[in-house]
């Protein structure tokens, strides 16, 4: 009787391991098209460097003729909201 319980437990553990290994890897979220997204959401240009003390540098968001937002060199678009 004890051996039967052990076999069932071992079989359940093996099935759980097999199912866990078969799970699809999570895909990273797609990178938003920031230039277009800033038409609908608030955006800011912040410096790419990592701040040690205080905040990062900022610059004014610039706009192309097609309506896409962009930042000067050394800055990146981020959502403000």
| Class from helix and strand fractions | alpha+beta
Rounded Rg: 25 Å
Number of strands: 5
Strand order of the largest sheet: 2-1-5
Keywords:
81 residues; three-stranded antiparallel sheet; 2 helices; 5 strands; 31% helix
Structural notes for this entry:
- The structure is a single chain.
- This protein is an alpha+beta fold and 81 residues long.
- The chain has a domain at 33-81.
- The protein is built from two helices and five strands.
- Strands 2-1-5 form a three-stranded antiparallel β-sheet, with no helix packed on it.
- A hairpin with a 5-residue loop joins strand 3 and strand 4 (69-70).
- The radius of gyration is 25 Å and the shape is elongated.
- 6% of the residues are buried.
Summarize, please.
With 81 residues, this protein is an alpha+beta fold.
Question: Which helices and strands, and how do they pair?
Answer:
Layout: H1 2-22, H2 34-37, E1 43-47, E2 58-59, E3 62-63, E4 69-70, E5 75-79
Antiparallel strand pairs: 1-2, 1-5, 3-4
